[in-house]
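// run 5 | inverse folding | seed 20
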């Protein structure tokens, strides 16, 4: 396919400029001004063109829980949300803990996926925290990182050995920092609200202790450590100190931990149940500061779809998780960029270059680069309507919230995955007459 994107604002790690991009054979063939090339062209005046959004943390539930989400529906939601690449967590059924299973996820994603899927393998077999999985072989099969997400590797000896091995082969370990010995089955943030509601609290200190231990082990082994979905001010401070002394640590935060507080759990709203739990306003502030000063490298969705009926139960019984792939960008654009709390360049960095740096791959809008591109319409508004989600998971605590700066086109390796809010509506079905 050949496609000429004309008259757009181009924003990437090299800055902002105005111009055209010619896409051919899956790559950016040319970037310039007033280009005239064969094939289709589309006028993107007023639109913003970015390197494709990347999500470091998504749960697509396949294999094993296809009633919640599949690789096909989850990647469609990603394309809808402007993502061109997503990393999928290993806690499926079976757990992705062998090279064969890594290959299976890749094959399925290639056949049925709308965006690029990068599998994350398990650190320990079965996520049981006992025996280290075949990290090297999984890496060769295409795993871009390793995580027992949901089950922090509680045993320090095993975590230490995993990091020693990872350091030797320069593998990326991703930690969901939560010391379960300090958490006592908490279902929401510990404190006076949880006490008043009669619910067990998850103490922020359980996260900070896990963050600090992992940082110490990473420092002593030289392992590349990525801490995912930080939720507390104490974690941000710990990562800031570690980075200052040169530890190879990176971190991400979710949209919900940036924007929402535990107050949403009041009235036993199961849509606000998530792990780590929503915390307090001072934590949101600390996370935002961490984004702005570079302590936090990326924004990741922790997209965790569940069936409607699973959330229609008591707060204790409901599964934790929020479906977030398709609204992450426009939610943050509306509530952080348009409100002046962070510059547009910061949001772009944390959702494009930041996650790519964690993975050790960079992409700018330049000739020869892969044509993974997201087009944003800064004037396009909407509200969150879970009934219209492409994802099978409609579980979100932000129904009715404002969205702005909607993604209007997602191009994955030169092919249009989403156009004007329709996944799979590319030139095979209709010419790109208009965008936005
Ligand atoms: Zn997690």
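// decoded
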């Amino acid at each position: 396919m050949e496609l000429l994107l004309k008259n757009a604002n181009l924003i990437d790690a090299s800055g902002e400029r105005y111009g055209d991009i010619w896409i051919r054979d899956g790559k950016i063939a040319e970037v310039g001004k007033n280009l005239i090339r064969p094939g289709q062209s589309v006028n993107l005046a007023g639109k913003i063109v970015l390197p494709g959004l990347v999500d470091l943390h998504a749960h697509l539930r396949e294999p094993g829980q296809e009633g919640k989400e599949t690789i096909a529906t989850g990647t469609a939601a990603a394309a809808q949300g402007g993502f061109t690449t997503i990393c999928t967590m290993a806690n499926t059924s079976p757990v992705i803990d062998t090279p064969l299973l890594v290959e299976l996820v890749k094959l399925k994603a290639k056949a049925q996926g709308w965006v690029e899927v990068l599998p994350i393998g398990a650190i320990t077999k079965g996520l049981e925290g006992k025996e280290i999985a075949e990290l090297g072989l999984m890496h060769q099969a295409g795993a871009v990182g390793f995580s027992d997400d949901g089950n922090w590797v509680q045993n320090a000896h095993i975590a230490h050995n995993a990091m020693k091995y990872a350091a030797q082969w320069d593998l990326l370990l991703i930690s969901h920092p939560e010391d379960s010995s300090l958490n006592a089955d908490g279902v929401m943030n510990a404190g006076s609200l949880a006490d008043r509601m009669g619910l067990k609290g998850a103490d922020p200190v359980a996260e900070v202790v896990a963050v600090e231990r992992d940082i110490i082990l990473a420092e002593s082994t030289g392992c590349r450590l990525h801490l995912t979905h930080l939720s507390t001010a104490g974690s941000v401070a710990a990562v800031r100190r570690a980075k200052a002394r040169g530890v190879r640590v990176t971190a991400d935060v979710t949209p919900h931990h940036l924007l929402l507080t535990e107050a949403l759990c009041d009235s036993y709203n199961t849509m606000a149940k998530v792990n780590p739990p929503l915390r307090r306003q001072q934590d949101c502030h600390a996370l935002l500061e961490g984004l702005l000063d570079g302590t936090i490298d990326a924004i990741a969705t922790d997209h965790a779809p569940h069936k409607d009926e699973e959330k229609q139960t008591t707060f204790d019984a409901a599964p934790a998780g929020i479906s977030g792939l398709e609204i992450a960008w426009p939610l943050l654009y509306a509530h952080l960029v348009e409100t002046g709390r962070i510059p547009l360049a910061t949001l772009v960095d944390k959702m494009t270059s930041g996650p790519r740096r964690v993975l050790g791959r960079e992409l700018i809008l330049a000739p020869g680069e892969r044509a993974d591109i997201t087009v944003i319409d800064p004037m396009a508004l909407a509200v969150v309507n879970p009934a219209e989600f492409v994802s099978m998971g409609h579980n979100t605590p932000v129904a009715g919230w404002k969205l702005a700066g909607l993604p209007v086109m997602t191009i994955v390796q030169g092919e249009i995955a989403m156009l004007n809010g329709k996944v799979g509506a590319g030139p095979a079905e209709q010419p790109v007459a208009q965008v936005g």
